[in-house]
Amino acid sequence: MTHRVAVVGTLNMDLVVRVQRRPDIGETVIGQSLTERPGGKGANQALAAAGRAPASLIGVVGDDDTGRRMLDAQRAGGVDVRHVAVTGEVSGRAIIEVDDSGDNRIVVVSGANSLLTPQMVIGALDDVDPAVVMTQLESPERVTAAVAEWCGRRDRRLVLNPSPVAPLRSEVIAASNPLVVNEIEAAYYADASSGDVDADAEAVARELCATAKSVVITLGADGVVAADGAQVSRVTVDRTPVADTTGAGDHFAGILAAALAGGADLHDAAADAARAATAYLAARQGS
Q1: Considering Cα of 8, then 107, then 237, then 184, what sign does the dihedral take?
Q2: Of 48, 74, 177, 196, which sits 20 to 30 A from 65 (CA to CA)?
Q3: CA 14 → CA 42, 155, 173, 258, 278, distances in Å?
Q4: How far apart are CA 34 and CA 29, in angstroms?
Q5: Where along the chain is K(+) bound (predicted)?
Q6: Level-2 CATH architecture, domain 5-10+40-91+112-285
Q7: Which of these, 224, 236, 207, lies nearest to 266 by C-alpha position?
Q8: 7-36: buried (b, 16+ CB within 10 Å) or exposed (e) per residue?
């Protein structure tokens, strides 16, 4: 085993539309710009992790120009893509609306990502033998279950970012160390119907620790809360003007996984990742 991070997840080409405000149902608005850039939660997290630790990405792209561009972007960022399969299906896409406040709304079309199988993932993980495995919920549910099972069998650390939010088997949540969630996801898994996680994020984190080994809740400009069986900590962050929040959560998660793989404890890793995500947002503001 090395200090390697393996990210199991998606690669999507992001089509980013800038709008003054996002349209209501049935409404048409005029877009300000359209850009295309490699993305996908798995790809974003792998690139972030690769800046701090050896990182591998496990996923699927199509045998098309989009797939080749996404693989080139990963290689340029230092990510090992030996276990990204290439298939005849069209590569995944994400359509992202970003308004003037920096908020976004995203629609993902899975494409080739949907062809990732448990067998492919288990074989890749056996070969890579990482210290930490990170995954999300953009891949098929059976893939998430296979990742959790592999981590339990091999005594490896699972960092689970359950996004987009969806029901999870109790054994998958139980294997998470940590479960990395934003306010919406934290409310869902804690069954906090009010959704007011900010009001008492520490209490929500403690509640989630009853089902997961540890928990990290990201609160945007209000910082980060980390909890394990021994401690709950809160990290404050510098407020920065935001042009586009897309990818900031993935950057946080990738840095967190790399720090944990390097031996940092949960609370130090969360603080490190929070600083990195703030710097990432500041850099996007200036770009």
Answers
A1: negative
A2: 48
A3: 13, 35, 29, 24, 22
A4: 14
A5: 244, 246, 281, 284, 286
A6: 3-Layer(aba) Sandwich (3.40)
A7: 224
A8: bbbbbbbbbbbbbeebeeeeeeeeeeeeee
Asked if 111 and 88 count as a contact pair (C-beta separation under 8 A), the reply is no
> Residue ranges for the binding site for ATP?
182, 218-223, 249-250
Rounded to 10 degrees, what is the CA torsion of 44, 168, 185, 73? 10
Q: Which of 64, 80, 99, 250 is catalytic?
A: 250
CB atoms within 10 A of CB 194: 7
Q: What is the token pair recorded at 236? A: 């404050």
* Residues β-bridged to residue 134: 7, 159
**Is 191 a known active-site residue?**
no
Helices 141-154 and 118-128, axial angle in degrees (round to 10): 30
Q: Give the pLDDT of the chain (287 residues) as one tens digit per residue.
A: 567 999 999 999 999 999 999 888 898 989 999 999 999 999 999 999 999 999 999 999 999 999 999 999 999 999 999 999 999 999 999 999 989 887 888 888 999 999 999 999 999 999 999 999 999 999 999 999 999 999 999 999 999 999 989 999 999 999 999 999 999 899 999 875 445 666 688 999 999 999 999 999 999 888 899 999 889 999 888 776 555 566 789 999 999 999 999 999 999 999 999 999 888 877 776 54
- Report the C-alpha gap between 174 and 56 in whole angstroms: 24
